[in-house]
Amino acid sequence: MTHFTAEQRAAIEQRDGPLLLSANAGSGKTSVLVERLVAAVLEDGIPPAQLLAITFTEKAAGELRSRVRARLAELGERVAAREIERAQISTIHGFCSGVLRAHAVAAGLDPAFTVLPGSATRELRARAFDDALAELLSEPADGALDLVAAWGPDRLRDAVEEVHEALRSQGQTEPRLPPCRPPRTVQEALAGLRAPTDLFTEELRGGRAGVKTVDAAREALSACHELLAAPGTPAREALDALRIARGAKELKTDACGAWVAAVEALGTALDDEEAAADHALLDTLLGAFARAYAAGKRALSGVDYDDLQLLVRDLLRDRPEVRAGYADRFSRVMVDEFQDTNALQLELIGFLDTGRTFLVGDELQSIYGFRHADVTLFRRQRAAHHARGEAAVLATNWRSHPELLETINGAWGEVVHAGYVPLVAGRTAEEETAAPRTELLLTSTAWDAPGLDARLADELGAGMPSGVKASKLAEARAVARRVRTLVDAGECREEEAVVLVRAASDLHVFARALEREGFATLAGGGRGYWLRQPVQDLTSYLGALINPRDERALFGTLASPLCGLSSDGLAHVAAAAREHGDAWRAVRSVALARRLGGADAAALEAFLIRFGLERTTAARYGLDELIERAVVRSGYDLHVLRLPGGRRRLANVHKLERLAAAYEEDHGRDVRGFIDHAQAEAEADVREADAPVELSGAPAIRLMTIHAAKGLEFGVV
Ligand SMILES: Nc1ncnc2c1ncn2[C@@H]1O[C@H](COP(=O)(O)OP(=O)(O)OP(=O)(O)O)[C@@H](O)[C@H]1O
Ligand SMILES: [Mg+2]
Fold first, then answer.
1. Cα separation of 349 and 360, whole Å?
2. Which ligand is nearest to the CA of 363?
3. What is the C-alpha to C-alpha distance for residues 128 and 115, in angstroms, rounded to an integer?
4. Strand partners, 22
5. Three-state DSSP state, 333
6. Ligand 2 centre and the CA of 686: distance in Å?
7. pLDDT range class, residue 687, cuts 50, 70, 90
8. 691 falls in which pLDDT band (50, 70, 90)?
9. Residues of the chain with CATH 3.40.50.300
10. Secondary-structure class of domain 445-527+692-709 per CATH
11. 236 to each of 216, 264, 387, 545, how far by Cα in Å?
12. Where in the chain is the domain with CATH 1.10.486.10?
């Protein structure tokens, strides 16, 4: 069992009131939380059903539960260990959906409501935006068309969706834009320009003649007088004639400076006026989007993640009897990873607070912007708790070896400077460790230079995803090989190792490299389907099929096993495409065929024959049939089966066929639509890959973004 330190003990004992524990990574925050749950049951006599613990992931919730159970069993409390099942230990979403199940009608929901998966809500949002945009443009207000043309529908959609989500996570059920700052009116700015213009004009009368910049200033001033004399609002472009260069001594005076500032103020006022009009239009669009999205969900009796929290917040706020019920029910509330809380969640937790809430967090582990978590909320709470003597800290890290902490402190102290609290090792250094605890594997971005990359990528990369930098391929290979030697030497088991990457878009590169070393990999809890190579290959193929002049799709197809060109061959194609100015023409040119090596030439010829035939008959087949024909005729299925984890990969190919068939059923035979859908899903996968991961115990190398690894422990990182 753990021997708690005095600091930890104090944080466990202080249960008769609120407490915020703010402490470094691996310092035992979660361990303290576990012990407080145990002590609540054994020492305070709280029935387990009255305990509520909120964690960041389902996995963490499961771990928490089993740690509490094990601790109770260790203390010989068999009944309590069984009873602990009745405690509510879950994510905040899990907690909210439980509350809504119990109070669906009061919350205004269909009792049979479903929590919609991300793919469904994305689809609904896309449709809602289309409707909202159509509504905005059906009786266009002044400037609506200009606004849409200036932004483009895609950027406008991203902005509206982003703002909608951000405002909802702050607690707004029907989001509206905050009012924009009251602009200084154009008329005020014009009035403010008169006096400086006269003053500067007067002053410049005594200036030299024949000096270029001074003469230009005189011209600008006369344009300014004209502008001031003209009725109405000046055009933004009219200010261009008022810009001057201030090189000459006559133009370095206060009068000149004041005039330039007044012209700038007029520019700002004109911008603000324009922005105010856009602001109103954007607010209208946001409102229409929010309504359409809400209606779409209602039609499906569905709610999204934010709804879960908004509805529960409303319920607790507006129904005193429900709030009182939960306050009665939960006499102890505990929140782990509190630094990742957003304003809405904080409000919600506030309604459950009965004066003994225990909050745990680490500012340095906050995920910037994840689900609109806001670390300033944590800081404010910490300050308030501190002022009331309700805050505690833990200094010592118990998780990692001292050598490792030294490395981390060295690196982070440099980056974070002030405010970095060094991790202090609780474990003692073991004498004479055989191997170093931290290792640095180096690659060079110099390898990414043009020319080098093709050769290196070829050597490193047979079977690697195309379009990846050589240094990245080398990095992935170095890591994969190191893991291989560790596992072979018996220094770690596969399931003890994790590879953390900065960006989700790197996951597939490392997955491929590990698989080449013969490992199975477990990434992102089943997310990222649309980023997988077969899915990318086959959607590229469909894109090329309907439009072979789509270069991205064409190159993706040629590089994939559907054609199977080597990177040398691709380099030839790229060069020929530059000469012809058209990749599709280049691919079919005799000149290229002569330049290609034997294997590449044969692969390309066979591909072009199959591809040509498919193009003539494509219209006859369904989406899924198109994919299936491509897979079977190119031998793609056999290729995939030969790779490590081949059956799983092939299952992904078949899954794509099923998804394509389902898409066709819903949307008709719209190949372009399906490709766009796949691309949108892939982008969403990249965005969502920072979400917490659920991992099973299978022997495989774990692979996740740094963010997703929060609060987890691994033997080799
Ligand atoms: N007093 C102690 N003595 C020895 N080991 C300890 C002690 N306290 C905690 N540990 C161990 O240190 C590790 C980290 O503990 P824990 O997960 O509770 O830290 P944490 O602060 O919650 O970490 P994170 O910041 O990642 O959430 C665990 O393996 C735990 O068993
Ligand atoms: Mg923890």
1. 13
2. 1
3. 18
4. 361, 393
5. strand
6. 25
7. low
8. very low
9. 6-109+307-399, 445-527+692-709
10. alpha beta
11. 20, 11, 52, 48
12. 531-676
Looking at residue 592, what is its pLDDT?
86
CATH class of 531-676: mainly alpha
- What token pair was written down for 235? 């055009």
Beta carbons of 331 and 296 less than 8 angstroms apart? no
DSSP 716: B
d(CA 4, CA 24): 16
Which strands make up the sheet holding 88-91, listed edge to edge? 88-91, 51-55, 332-335, 358-361, 19-23, 391-394
Contact 508, 704 (CB under 8 A): no
State how far the alpha carbon of 221 is from the alpha carbons of 202, 215, 234, 537, in Å. Answer: 11, 10, 15, 63
Give yes or no for residue 617 having a pLDDT over 60. Answer: yes
pLDDT band at 526 (very low <50, low <70, confident <90, very high): very low
Pair of tokens at residue 206: 């005594």
**Distance (Å) of CA 562 to CA 84, 574, 627:** 55, 18, 11
3-state secondary structure string across 574-610: HHHHHHHCCHHHHHCCHHHHHHCCHHHHHHHHHHHHH
Ligand 1: which residues within 6 Å by Cβ? 2-5, 8, 23, 25-31, 362, 365, 398-399, 426, 711, 713
- Per the listing, tokens 């630094």 go with 339
Q: Which residue's C-alpha comes closest to atom 25 of ligand 1?
A: 25
- Domain 6-109+307-399 architecture: 3-Layer(aba) Sandwich (3.40)
In this structure, what are the phi and psi dihedrals at residue 424, rounded to the nearest 5 degrees? -105, 130
Closest-CA residue to 464 (of 651, 601, 686, 643): 643
pLDDT at 690: 44
